[in-house]
């Protein structure tokens, strides 16, 4: 498992997610911060890969739904500790992003990681939460006038909602006012192009890079 220049190994941190041990994970996150590991690295080299392994273990039948839930909860708690350290206080805002998980889908760990990374890059993020219907996204674009709308889907059957939102934005004459980006495990660049989104991001780091490109900053 990878180790940083100052000798920090991510293995115990990843193990604590797999063991669904919130207290140990928080201890290790604080330890990493104390050793000078950046919050971005903790997210991209620790928390993201750990949840990837959780996913694999669920697929192979080693983990069950409660395991996924508890591992997600541990990661969410760690993110709450990292968030204030990632947020670039004093840096002028790069723009506003509205983000949410689409209707029928309650997965939010990935969306939350993306939100954390975007905030850390200097974007102001309005997080709508999970299970957001088409009308909820359209209303939020009207209300918050974001530069970018981000949609997350983890269940294959809910991906279609992304296309419905883009269609509804066109019908409401809002499509030209907002860039649309999509992501989530089953989503691909090909699908993003197919539904007429402006971009696809495979992970939190990608999402931050993509948003910077889209707003030209
Ligand atoms: C944790 C988990 C859960 C937890 C969710 C907890 C939570 N608060 O989110 C719980 C237990 C609640 C759950 C429930 C269910 N789950 Co589930 N779950 C997972 C699991 C194991 C991991 C998801 C995760 O957190 N990944 C880690 C994060 C970091 O990765 P990520 O979400 O992909 O996000 C990254 C990128 O995709 C990207 N990204 C994500 N969103 C966005 C958005 C934008 C704009 C951008 C740019 C990028 C981006 O950046 C993120 C950070 O790197 C996946 C397996 C997997 N391999 O994905 C199954 C999985 C998604 N679940 C699945 C299923 C079937 C279910 C249930 C139906 C199970 C059931 N029988 O009840 C329910 C569905 C409920 C619903 N309607 O949504 C299936 C979906 C199958 C399919 N093809 O559709 C999967 C793939 C498991 C499997 N192999 O079968 N689940």
Q: What topology does this entry show?
A:
Layout: H1 11-18, H2 22-34, H3 39-59, H4 65-86, E1 95-102, H5 109-121, E2 123-132, H6 134-144, E3 148-152, H7 160-171, E4 179-183, H8 189-195, E5 199-200, H9 204-215
Parallel strand pairs: 1-2, 1-3, 3-4, 4-5
Helix pairs in contact: 1-2, 1-3, 2-4, 3-4, 4-5, 5-9, 6-7
The structure holds cobalamin (B12).
Can you walk through the features of this model?
- With 217 residues, the chain is α/β, with parallel strands linked by helices.
- It is 55% helix and 14% strand.
- It folds into 2 domains: 11-86, Methyltransferase, Methionine Synthase (B12-binding Domains), Chain A, domain 1 (Orthogonal Bundle); 95-215, 3-Layer(aba) Sandwich (Rossmann fold).
- The two termini are 34 Å apart.
- It has a 5-stranded parallel sheet, sandwiched between helices.
- The protein has 9 helices and 5 strands; from the N terminus they run H-H-H-H-E-H-E-H-E-H-E-H-E-H.
- Helix 5 links the parallel strand 1 (95-102) and strand 2.
- Bound molecules: cobalamin.
- The site of cobalamin (B12) has 36 residues, from helix 3, helix 4, helix 5, strand 3 and strand 4.
């Amino acid at each position: 498992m990878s180790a940083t220049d100052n000798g920090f190994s991510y293995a115990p941190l990843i193990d604590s997610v797999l063991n669904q041990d919130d207290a140990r994970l928080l201890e290790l996150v604080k330890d990493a911060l104390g050793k000078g590991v950046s919050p971005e690295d903790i997210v991209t080299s620790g928390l993201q890969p750990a949840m990837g392994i959780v996913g694999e273990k669920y697929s192979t039948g080693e983990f069950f739904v409660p395991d996924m839930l508890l591992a997600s909860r541990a990661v969410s708690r760690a993110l709450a500790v990292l968030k204030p350290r990632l947020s670039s206080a004093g840096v002028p805002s790069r723009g506003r992003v509205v983000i949410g998980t689409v209707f029928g889908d309650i997965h939010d760990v990935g969306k939350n990681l993306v939100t954390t990374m975007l905030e850390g890059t200097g974007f102001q993020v309005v997080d709508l939460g999970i299970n957001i219907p088409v009308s909820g996204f359209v209303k939020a674009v009207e209300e918050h006038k974001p530069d970018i709308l981000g949609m997350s889907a983890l269940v294959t059957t809910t991906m279609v909602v992304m296309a419905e939102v883009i269609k509804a934005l066109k019908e409401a004459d809002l499509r030209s006012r907002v860039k649309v980006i999509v992501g989530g495990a089953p989503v691909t660049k090909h699908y993003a192009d197919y539904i007429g989104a402006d971009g696809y991001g495979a992970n939190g780091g990608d999402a931050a890079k993509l948003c910077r490109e889209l707003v030209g900053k």
